[in-house]
Design brief:
- The protein is α+β, with helices and mostly antiparallel strands.
- The protein contains 16 helices and 41 strands.
- It has a nine-stranded antiparallel β-sheet.
- A hairpin with a 2-residue loop joins β32 and β33.
- α11 crosses α13 and α12 crosses α13.
- It is globular.
Length: about 850
């Protein structure tokens, strides 16, 4: 399993830094009292703001509208917060209120229903805390009346409101950052007027619902999906953030098969980062077993000017010591991740860098970070890793950039990093003592992210054509790795020999002894993929051992789970299920496929992330299918079973949502839903697409049945040629496949795969297919076959391309053609050769259906 990467670019809009402020804003401080750290002072005030006893009111019959969010304050008391720069930024309400949110698509309504039991969110609430950067107070003013017991209200709710303020402080700092002094001088009135026109609208309501408990409603115009509803929830000691619904009010999800697809399956185009990181130069001192100290220079280019702050993601285990802009110190704020968010789960925080003045389009500048901390984790046996403890360098999300990495580390350790080994630069860091060594790694082309691994490795090298494959592993496995039980075998006694006991002690796994086989598996995968999808993108691939069950891929560098280094005998001793053994053997091929799908070509938004996992996994499955069809079948069957297995509530994992929910599938409802859907269903979707294309071309009498000429492979080669070094959406991928679409796959005569997008990629169905009313009528030298296909347990408008086969005595089933099953019942007519006596649907199980 590849680790889920959640970058700043894919989160709630923090990477797009525009602001809205009012021209009448009053400074936080006087002209002669500007503090040394004005941004920090502003941030702290935003995060600690309390209620204002002079702004407490009775409210009745008021409402707030933010895109699709409708909030009614029927009757109650509301207190507004104290000013921040002359602006009210929050309020606390107690009384009788109601919220209404209508998701615009079937996908989002289904998601809402999963968590709330309602397709439409309609909930009464008793208390609510509002945070905003616009004119909520003015909107409510006509419905406000003199209060009763204002002081008592503030006394009761003041501390609660103050505690809730911190969660939105960073987002509001984004909105107010341009009001900060420029070289000690407050912005001019002209600047403030300009800022007041900027399209930044933020509204966050944390609501205490009568039935649903505490939940959030969010409208953020800077986010690609401006409207979101969700709830933090703890299950089995782990805190999730369940996203009930998320969408753009101006670019709704596809609601029918004739809607425009946009850039992907129901998501708007991702916002292009207005400041691009072009190059990272990072000098890191590694001090095993836990610490690193680093100096990172990030070269940035401004695409759209006007902002004052930049946000970077960095592990919470690292502390920033200083930040400099073009060599001069600048202010920064290291903001802890809020529990229950994606950043918190990843163990990352936000570092906000405050620029001395607004950026200008086309401007280029450098930021230098000095930081350090305990970001490494020791797993025993000379095995360290950084992957499970967050991002080790400040970044703005996964975007293509050049990397120049230099490391100083003790003798006796081996360090491997992304890129190609290069001579140490003349200005290299000086080793602190004779026991230290220095190595340097430079990316061969722009890559989306960089990593390194450190251990007391042995190395094995093999060639895959002109690509060097190096495998690094330790002599032992990590602490806590499972051990096979000791076996005692009792012999049967006889007249000449008493009963004896034989004790068999299993061997302790040694990854270093198996690393040559692991490297060879990756080398075979490189050659297999290069032949089909184009050359391997880099000159080398390094495989390094990583503790735990998960593996993680970086460009030119793969962290392989210790389980990937087991041989068959060791797996058998641990009594793994047959399908699990097959999956472990596939790990090197799966992670190697990410060098094409995930590293060379990225994904546009979280809704497209399934492409990386599903396609990488299916490429490895293609290899397995050629070598071991039975093993392929075992894994595909297990993926099917995982999707349809019911939980204690009688729901299957497939019901959590489609693959296009991406990281939202990591929820309290189905903790294992992400893996079952992104990997399992994602793999099935690519298998369906591949077999549909193959069968339809065969039906049309065209070549393309295997090898290089296979239509699925031809399309993926086109994808690689057009999108290498870029991100791709699901819609863009399907458009490439639809360019040469055979007639049999043109639903309603359209040269489009929208039907597959709507029914299968954006759907959750695992239907059951049945035949009824089949008639075989002789006609000429052949026959005509008619009948009805029933789709049970699927969406009522599910469209499926179903392969129809004829059975002739003593022969393999013959493909008669693919027909569309549209809805619950669909009639069909196909031609058949003479001798066909029986009709069957999908005998080779190429469609994701329930077991028949």
């Amino acid at each position: 399993m590849t680790k889920v990467l959640i970058g700043v670019r894919h989160s709630s809009g923090w990477a797009a830094l525009l602001v809205l402020v009012m021209a009448s804003v009053v400074p936080l401080w006087g002209a002669d009292t500007v503090p040394d750290k004005p941004a920090e002072a502003l941030y702290l005030q935003l995060g600690q703001i309390g209620l204002d006893a002079s702004r407490v009111y009775q409210v009745r019959g008021a409402s707030l509208e933010r895109a699709s969010i409708h909030i009614s304050l029927e009757d109650g008391t509301i207190a507004f917060t104290q000013d921040v720069m002359g602006k009210i930024t929050g309020a606390f309400f107690q009384g009788d209120g109601e919220v209404l949110l209508v998701p615009p698509s079937e996908v989002e309504r289904r998601s809402m229903s999963l968590f709330t039991g309602m397709a439409i969110l309609e909930e009464h609430f008793e208390t609510a805390y509002f945070r905003f950067n616009d004119d909520v107070a003015d909107e409510l003013r006509p419905d406000l009346r003199a209060p009763e017991n204002a002081d008592e209200f503030v006394t009761r709710w003041g501390s609660t409101a103050k505690n809730l303020a911190a969660s939105d402080a960073m987002r509001l700092l984004v909105s107010f950052s341009r009001l900060l002094p420029v070289n000690g001088t407050m912005p001019s009135t002209q600047t403030l007027n300009f800022l007041g026109k900027m399209p930044d609208h933020f509204f966050h309501a944390r609501v205490q619902g009568v039935k649903l408990g505490v939940f959030d409603l969010l409208y953020d115009s800077l986010s690609a999906e401006a409207v979101e509803a969700g709830q933090p929830k703890t299950e089995n000691g782990f805190t999730y953030y369940d996203v009930w619904s998320s969408f753009s009010p101006t670019t709704p999800l596809r609601t029918d098969r004739n809607a425009n697809g946009g850039s992907g399956p129901g998501n708007p185009s991702p916002r292009e980062d207005w400041v691009a990181a072009r190059r990272y130069t990072i000098r890191t001192e590694v001090q095993p077993p836990k610490e690193i100290h680093a100096h990172a220079r990030v070269e940035l280019e401004v695409k759209e000017g006007g902002t004052r702050d930049l946000l970077f993601e960095l592990s919470r285990f690292l502390q920033v010591e200083s930040v400099k802009l073009n060599g001069k110190p600048v202010e920064y704020i290291h903001n802890p991740a809020v529990e229950g968010t994606q950043l918190s789960r990843r163990a990352d925080d936000i570092v906000a860098v405050i620029l001395p003045e607004a950026t200008r389009a086309g401007e280029k500048f450098d930021l230098e970070f000095v930081y350090g901390g305990e970001v490494l984790a020791a797993a025993g046996s000379g095995l360290l890793y950084v992957g499970a403890r967050g991002t080790w360098y400040p970044n703005r999300g996964m975007a293509m950039a050049d990397f120049d990495l230099e490391f100083a580390y003790p003798q006796g350790w081996t360090l491997v990093a992304t890129g190609k080994s290069a001579p140490v630069a003349a200005e290299a860091m000086e080793p602190k003592d004779k026991g230290e060594q220095v190595s340097r790694w430079i990316s061969e082309r722009p890559i989306p992210l960089a990593g390194f691994n450190l251990g007391k490795y042995k190395v094995a090298t093999v060639m895959a054509g002109n690509v060097t494959v190096e495998t690094y592993a330790t002599q032992g496995v990590e602490k806590g790795f499972p051990t096979a039980p000791v076996q005692v075998i009792e012999s049967s006694p006889s007249q000449s020999m008493p009963q004896r006991s034989q004790i068999i002690v299993p061997n302790t796994p040694s990854p270093a002894q198996n690393e040559a086989a692991v490297g060879e598996a990756a080398a075979q995968a490189i050659q297999y993929y290069a032949k089909r999808f184009g050359p391997y993108p880099y000159s080398r691939l390094a495989l390094t051992q990583m503790p735990g069950r998960d593996s993680q891929g970086w460009p030119g560098l793969i962290f392989l789970s210790s389980y990937a280094f087991l041989n068959n005998s060791e797996r058998e001793q641990l009594h793994f299920e047959p399908f699990r053994m097959e999956l472990q053997k596939m790990i090197p091929a799966h992670e190697t496929a990410h060098q094409w799908w995930g590293d060379l070509i990225g994904w546009s938004t979280y809704r497209d992330q399934w492409l990386s996992e599903g396609l990488a996994n299916y490429c490895a499955m293609m290899m397995l299918q050629e070598k071991d069809p039975d093993g392929f079948h075992k894994i595909m069957e297990r993926y099917r079973e995982d999707l349809i297995e019911k939980n204690q509530d009688g729901m299957s994992r497939a019901e959590e949502g489609p693959v296009t929910l991406g990281t939202r599938l990591l929820s309290s409802k189905f903790p294992e839903g992400y893996e079952a859907i992104s990997y399992g269903r994602g793999t099935w979707l690519f298998h369906m697409l591949r077999t549909m294309l193959r069968d339809a071309w065969a039906q049309q009498g065209s070549r393309g049945s295997s090898g290089e000429e296979e239509p699925f492979v031809r399309a993926l080669r086109k994808v690689r040629q057009r999108y290498e070094g870029k991100a791709i959406s699901t819609g863009e991928l399907l458009s490439v496949f639809a360019e040469d679409l055979p007639t049999a796959l043109r639903y309603e005569g359209k040269n489009s795969l929208d039907w597959f997008l709507d029914s299968w990629i954006n759907g959750i169905s695992v239907p059951k297919l049945e035949l009824k009313g089949v008639k075989i009528v002789p006609k000429g030298t052949g026959a005509t076959v008619s009948g009805t296909i029933l789709q049970r347990d699927g969406d009522k408008d599910l469209v499926t391309s179903v392969p129809v086969y004829g059975i002739v005595s003593g022969k393999q089933p013959i493909l008669l053609g693919r027909v569309f099953a549209d809805g619950e019942e669909s009639t069909f007519h196909v031609a058949a050769p003479a001798g066909v006596r029986k009709i069957v649907l999908d005998p080779y199980e190429t469609v994701l259906t329930t077991l028949r």
